Structure formats: structure tokens, C-alpha cells
Amino acid sequence: MPLTSIHLKVLLPFHIFTERPDVARIVADTQAGSFGLLPHRLDCVAALGPGILTYQTQSDDETHVAIDEGVLVKIGSDVFVSVRRAVGGTDLGQLRDTVKREFAAIDEHERGVRAVMAKLEAGLLHRLASFQHE
Questions:
Q1: Could you read off the pLDDT tens digit of each residue along the chain, which spans 134 residues?
Q2: Which of 13, 50, 114, 133 could be 103's S-S partner, Cβ–Cβ 3.0 to 4.6 Å?
Q3: How far apart are the first and last CA of the chain?
Q4: Would you call 111 exposed, middle or buried from its count of C-beta atoms within 10 A (0-12, 13-18, 19+)?
């Protein structure tokens, strides 16, 4: 029996952002570009980058969601999108600006924090190694 709709669930770390049982198609941005999902597509997994997730319901309502990095998993008629942050809206231009301004800026800050933590860890390991050799 062919599938006629997708059951979409967008998950954030502490709650469900949205759940729609009547989705006809999904377009998502990956780190390699954007791709579309229809109900009959084979099961798949995709790493998502910051961008816009667009889905259209059976009643032709199109919805856009700005998402941060995450993962998309399709199993049968279920599609799970797990991301750190998501912002809904109707104005596509405003959502694109949100992705660029908020999500990209936070990612740049996190890269800086990770670099500092790596230096601290390397320094600690170096000092521990020097104590062991004494």
C-alpha cells in the first residue's frame, strides 16, 4: 500500500517543537545542499545544517521553520527532525535572516569556546605528563 502522507515530528532538546501527521512533502537544507522528501521515498538519514525546513501539508499549507544543526531520520511514514534550536514564522526572508544572524553567530561563538577548552585540556595533559616523568 503506497504511503500518502508523512508524519513529521520536529524535536528540540527538551520538547517537541511541532508534530504534523498530514505532511505531503518536506524540503530540508543539508551541509551538501537541499533535498526533498515525499511519502514514498526510501528510509534515510541526513545531517542538517543551519537553514530552512519547509513542509507542505495535504491541505496545501506551506510552513517554514528556521532550524539549527541537527539530524533528519525517515523511517517508513515517520520523519523525525532533531535540532538544537528552531524558530517558526511565515516570512521566509525574515527566517533566513534569523538563521544567518542567530544560529551562525552562536556557532562561531561555540567554535571559539571549543578552541579555548581544547587548549586548556592540552595544557592540563601536558602538566600531568610532566608530573609523571618527575
A1: 456 899 999 999 999 999 999 999 999 988 888 889 999 989 999 999 888 899 999 887 888 898 888 999 999 999 999 998 888 876 777 777 777 777 666 666 677 777 778 888 888 787 877 877 66
A2: 50
A3: 72
A4: exposed
